[in-house]
Amino acid sequence: MKKAIEALKTAEERGSDLLIFPELFLPGYPPEDLMLRLSFLRENRRYLLELASHTKSCEVTVLVGFIDSDEDAYNAAAVLKRGEVLGVYRKMFLPNYGVFDERRYFKPGEELLVLKMGDVKIGVTICEDIWNPVEPSASLSLGEGVHLVANLSASPYHVGKPRLRKEYLSMKAYDYHTAIAYCNMVGGQDELVFDGGSIVVDASGEVISYGKLFEEEIITVDLDLDENLRVSLLDPRRRYMRSQNYPVKIVDVGGLRRKSSHFDPLIHPIPKREEEMFRALVTGVRDYVRKNGFEKVVIGLSGGMDSSLVAVIATEALGKENVKGVLMPSMYTSKSSLEDAQKLAENLGIETFIIPITDVFRSYLDALKEVFAGKEPDITEENIQARIRGNYLMALSNKFGWLVLTTGNKSEMATGYATLYGDMAGGFAVIKDVYKTDVYRIGRWYNEWKGREIIPENVFVKPPSAELRPGQTDQEKLPPYEILDEILKLYIEEGLDPEEIALKGFDKKMVVEVTEMVRKNEYKRKQAAIGTKISTRAFGKDWRMPITNRFREPL
């Protein structure tokens, strides 16, 4: 509400007619099972009315997202002006795919809402409404002849979505000959990141203004709504289109004011893929840490690529003074790994601690020698080392209140190449949705962006290894990451069967082994820390596989 009041003051100073906030702006998106608490619904209503009171002396009309409730709950937008709630629109199309679960919580609306502002008509929609191919856009533009469709949105980020969204809204405006003002949420909420990129498009599909990604801002735009009629006269297709006969509520909010004293005709560029991913990860870490009351984080630095990138992201998100690195060498840790970890920490300016695990590891082996008698060393001893390190990090977290950031990537999470209660121990998994090949790409981009070697070159060129036994490398148990990641993307994100993946040229035996690793390690992922989602299908809300199942995909 405080943010809304500040934005209201700015809009009034600029002479704006309409101020649009994101979807469910007051309660936050997604509220999930807070929705089932009547006290939460009541507080949400109380703050809406309080915000309305701040519009008493304002000429600007406000559209703000909130939860409406009577006999049921609705994802809604309120129309506020001169101290009153003049109308409410209830979202008609509720998404229930991917990370969305709105049908669990909301009932769909059944009525269109049109604001009448002098001779101008504005149709109100919420997020999924505008992604639906036909309605309610058709009824608003064709049936009601609105000049502008206002869309309050909370559209979660994944790689490539800013460009997709921009192109889609441009085509949507062109198809319906109606200007669109699309306001998207910014910031991290648990594993979701909302990337902003709010956009205003005229009736010809031309982008008038495109906001910054991953940054809050107030965009003020003057629209020539005569453009709608001009486009319709030149392209008569809409004359022959039909719309649904939805009931419509018209809310007269008064006439238009003077032309605004402020105009942001800025079209911010969409960054390259690696920068886009990096900024999403930084936003996810910053908001999760800050919103949950932490100040500092701690990371186990191994001298490898994963922990190096996590340290870089954390430093950018929180500042070097709030990031602690811990080096935990064993008898198997190479000298170069220690040097790489120390060099990274120096380049970032973060404080580090060295806490060896060798003596503790030997005490474990001594305590277990009678029970393990007659058994050859295997992965058990490797996992003990990882769990000692996890214990160290959690002890520091308990003692100093530092949040432990885990360093596992998506390739490892998918195949189970990680240790429960070891390197998986922690509060937030920064790169759990980043494939290993992308970890390297983002690291390379970061050094180029900084114009100097922050992540040491040796980290990029040495074979990746957990260093839990002599001469160990990741490729002993996993296919080369360049091949592994492509198989995983086809299986996880595109939903292809092993047989379909093999037909794309991958070795059949390898495909079966990889997909079996994914299946067998579901129990690990269920116990992993949450982390920022940046792909089209992340392990978490997107991926809901049962641990207990006997289904085997044929090949």
Automatic annotation (TrEMBL):
Pfam families noted in UniProt: CN_hydrolase, NAD_synthase
PANTHER family hit by this protein: GLUTAMINE-DEPENDENT NAD(+) SYNTHETASE (PTHR23090:SF9), NH 3 /GLUTAMINE-DEPENDENT NAD + SYNTHETASE (PTHR23090)
Record PROSITE patterns: CN_HYDROLASE, NITRIL_CHT_1
Class of the enzyme per the UniProt entry, highest EC level: ligase
Record InterPro entries: C-N_Hydrolase, C-N_Hydrolase_sf, Gln-dep_NAD_synthase, NAD/GMP_synthase, NAD_synthase, Nitrilase/CN_hydratase_CS, Rossmann-like_a/b/a_fold
A GO term from the CC aspect: cytoplasm
Source domain of life: Bacteria
Record key words, sorted: ATP-binding, Ligase, NAD, Nucleotide-binding
UniProt-listed Gene3D superfamilies: Carbon-nitrogen hydrolase (3.60.110.10), HUPs (3.40.50.620)
GO MF annotation list: ATP binding; glutaminase activity; NAD+ synthase (glutamine-hydrolyzing) activity; NAD+ synthase activity; nitrilase activity
Residues where deamido-NAD(+) binds: N383, E412, K524
Protein's name according to its UniProt entry: Glutamine-dependent NAD(+) synthetase
Limits of the CN hydrolase domain: 1-225
Family assignment from sequence similarity: In the C-terminal section; belongs to the NAD synthetase family. Belongs to the NAD synthetase family.
Biological or metabolic pathway of the protein: Cofactor biosynthesis; NAD(+) biosynthesis; NAD(+) from deamido-NAD(+) (L-Gln route): step 1/1
Annotated binding of ATP, by residue: G300, L301, S302, G303, G304, M305, D306, S307, T407
Chain sites annotated for binding L-glutamine: Y97, S155, K161
Gene Ontology biological process: NAD+ biosynthetic process
NCBIfam families reported in the protein's UniProt record: nadE (TIGR00552), PRK13981.1 (NF010588)
Known function: Catalyzes the ATP-dependent amidation of deamido-NAD to form NAD. Uses L-glutamine as a nitrogen source.
Catalytic activity of the protein: deamido-NAD(+) + L-glutamine + ATP + H2O = L-glutamate + AMP + diphosphate + NAD(+) + H(+)
Active site (record annotation): E23, K91, C127
